[in-house]
């Protein structure tokens, strides 16, 4: 039998086939589904899905949180009640694996952006979000955008939700959602490339049930009044936090200040609070069972062990206050 691509006619057929394949590949690359090449497997990796200009970046490993002592305290206090209620018998939070939050650095944008990953039933998740975002008028509108299904709430200014088939959910309002999608499909830089966030998170070991880094803006205490500017905390320029949840809960906090003098003032306040349990309870930190405080030049580092019984009582008080 004569080979299909032998001779002049076969060569012509081969050229046509190659041309079709080339066109098809081009269409798939430029018009095909967009989104991350693969869903991040660890909470700390979600930083790669947050905008590079974020001032605050925080990641939460929900799998570790559910299995630790803090989860049991939350359940006992009622803080983690029936999360599946709004979606009937489908509980999206039960399938969520990791969560990340970002606050923009610009003064003009202050709304947070959220990114979550999980093993979701995408159809049920979208239906749940649309039903809750629509209100009494019926389910909210959905649209396809660069590989995501976007749920647009009826109330103007409310956050939109974008769901990707690979198990990625983005939540933000307006332009910020487009920014998240740009980062997710690689057309915009991420917080993982931001030098200050990389440095701060590396200081915390790039691990933890909760891991946060914050590039503190100048005048960040102004919303609390001009008197707050005289607080020792006014000199904080950057912050990193790591919380480890297991059989017990431990936290590590790093504060970087404008000067060694400012750091010394904060360290002195922290030591006074540690020595006076009544003061700790007065400022809502009665759940701190033990604390280690150290200073090195312009840095203050605090290591905390949290008492679960007192933490549970604090959560109960917060829950009661929210219901008033």
Give a concise summary.
The chain is of the alpha+beta class and 324 residues long.
Description:
With 324 residues, the chain is α+β, with helices and mostly antiparallel strands. The protein has two domains: 90-189, no CATH class; 194-324. It has helices spanning 7-31, 62-67, 69-77, 92-95, 122-134, 175-184, 195-203, 260-275, 277-282, 308-323; strands at 54-61, 96-104, 113-118, 141-145, 148-152, 160-164, 168-172, 210-215, 236-245, 249-257, 288-296, 299-306. The protein has a twelve-stranded antiparallel beta sheet, sandwiched between helices. α3 (69-77) runs parallel beside α10 (308-323). The longest helix has 25 residues, at 7-31. Mean pLDDT is 78; it is low at 1-6, 8-34 and 77-85.
């Amino acid at each position: 039998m004569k080979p299909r691509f032998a001779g002049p006619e076969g060569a012509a057929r081969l050229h046509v086939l190659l041309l079709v394949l080339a066109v098809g590949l081009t269409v798939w690359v430029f018009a095909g589904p967009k989104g991350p090449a693969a869903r991040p497997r660890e909470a700390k990796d979600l930083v790669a899905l947050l905008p590079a200009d974020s001032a605050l970046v925080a990641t939460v490993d929900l799998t570790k949180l559910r299995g630790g002592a803090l989860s049991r305290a939350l359940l006992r206090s009622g803080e983690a009640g029936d999360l599946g209620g709004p979606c009937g018998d489908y509980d999206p939070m039960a399938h969520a694996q990791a969560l990340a939050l970002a606050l923009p650095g610009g003064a003009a944008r202050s709304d947070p952006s959220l990114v979550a990953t999980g093993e979701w039933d995408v159809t049920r998740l979208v239906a749940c979000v649309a039903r809750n975002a629509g209100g009494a008028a019926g389910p909210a509108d959905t649209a396809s955008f660069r590989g995501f299904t976007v749920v647009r709430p009826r109330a103007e200014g409310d956050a939109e939700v974008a769901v990707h088939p690979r198990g990625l959910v983005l939540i933000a309002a307006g332009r910020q959602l487009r920014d998240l999608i740009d980062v997710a499909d690689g057309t915009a830089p991420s917080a993982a490339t931001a030098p200050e966030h990389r440095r701060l998170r590396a200081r915390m070991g790039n691990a933890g049930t909760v891991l946060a880094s914050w590039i503190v803006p100048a005048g960040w205490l102004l919303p609390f009044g001009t008197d707050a500017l005289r607080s020792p905390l006014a000199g904080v320029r950057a912050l990193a936090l790591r919380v480890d949840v297991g059989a017990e809960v431990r936290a590590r906090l790093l504060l970087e200040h404008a000067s060694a003098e400012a750091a010394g003032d904060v360290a002195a306040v922290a030591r006074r609070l540690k020595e006076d349990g009544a003061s700790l309870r007065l400022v809502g930190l009665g759940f701190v069972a033990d604390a280690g405080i150290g200073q090195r030049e312009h840095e203050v580092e605090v290591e905390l062990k949290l008492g679960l019984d007192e933490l549970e009582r604090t959560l109960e008080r917060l829950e009661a206050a929210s219901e008033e």
